[in-house]
Amino acid sequence: MKMLSGHSNADGSPERLNRRRFLVAASAGLAGSALAESATAESLADVPAREPGADLSGFSARSQYVKISRIPEAGPGRRNIDPSEAINSKAPLQDLVGTITPSDLHYERSHSGVVDLDPARHRLLVHGMVERPLVFSMDDLKSMPAVTRTAFLECTGNGWENWKKADENVTVQNTHGLVSTNEWTGVPLKFVIGLLGKDPASTWMLAEGGDAAGVARSIPLTEEILDEAILAYGQNGEPLRPAHGFPLRLLLPGMEGNLNIKWLRRLKFGDQPWMTRWETARYTQLLANGKARQFQLRMETNSVITQPSGTMVIRPGRNRITGLAWSGHGRIAKVEVSTDGARTWQEVALTGPALPKAQVRFQLDWAWDGKPTKIVSRSTDEKGNVQPDRKSFIAAMGTNALFHYNAQQTWGIDESGRVRNVLD
Ligand SMILES: Nc1nc2c(c(=O)[nH]1)N[C@H]1C(S)=C(S)[C@@H](COP(=O)(O)O)O[C@H]1N2
Ligand SMILES: [Mo]
Fold first, then answer.
1. Is the beta carbon of 263 within 6 A of some atom in ligand 1?
2. d(CA 396, CA 391)
3. Does the C-beta of 209 come closer than 6 Å to ligand 1?
4. Per residue in 163-198, pLDDT tens?
5. Which of 90, 258, 284 to mutate to test the pocket of ligand 1 (most atoms within 8 A of CB)?
6. What is the pLDDT of residue 58?
């Protein structure tokens, strides 16, 4: 795996990338000419003066110059809708840097709106095939040993825009905005199970939310899930936001978004799935032969170029390509990018460590020659799963299905530099 490393001096101290060095690098073709041309200022007179500040405040808002927001949508292709029709709200992937999605921009999917529960009144019932059924308050849960981990969450509907056709005028927020990465804190499910005396014959767990939709899912108690599931109350260092399940949600890293039950009120242990409507009528995968696949729970290896991406316009010369890669199987092992429509590929740099079941950012310094082309990324995870190209993905899955779309995303670039969503 390649990492971008900064230059350092002989004594190991990092060297400042001053203008002279930058021009040398640029003329050697390392950074491209466009950047060097724009970096011509050499004196303080070229830098804006210092400014007086505003009063300090209880919490800080984004800069007035940063226009960034989620977009509510009503389903595949149903954009520009009345907010009351929205079923999800997509994260602005094109405007994000790094890998953590700010809590207020984390994608959101809620089946009956956002409930705001009183944590003092909230309770979690745990029952079924256990020796001691128990009811926990939030204070009970917060007094238990906690864990913190970074994980992506992805709706199984992510990517559904491109199952059948490519709308040329959509952004990466429209095509891939149903995935986000946050740091989550809470009690390991394992710890709670230890308190209950779970019957060893119990191999399934029902998780139910406290919103009116009654979202409830059967979860197989595999070793992996028992090891990793968290009853989460913390999100990016603060209590969960109401949109994401305040005061308590289930977190199952790498598994389909729908299983990560928000406003969690009940866990029931049993020895078979409950066949709720959420795993029979909904969230099943209609295959090409007309049969439906149930309990396809893991999110596959995926990646997308977020810049440049749909509806952006680029100029010839140096362009930084960057995007995100993730896999429900574990760590991302490598990301490759093609700038010639998937004819040739090169492994690209990651901007930081690849954590298991979390998004990692990749980047490539690319010089566009101004000719029409297509750019596309593909990821490989530590288990050797390779993100499929769209043709083989559709050949395997057919077009009846709607969920778990993880085919490579191609962006077409025309001679004017306009970037468009294309199928391949
Ligand atoms: N109680 C409850 N849990 C829920 C949902 C819901 O509507 N109600 N939506 C599910 C779906 S479909 C997804 S993709 C994730 C979305 O989590 P987020 O809104 O925090 O991104 O929560 C899941 N858990
Ligand atoms: Mo979802």
1. yes
2. 9
3. yes
4. 888 899 999 999 999 999 999 999 999 999 999 999
5. 258
6. 96
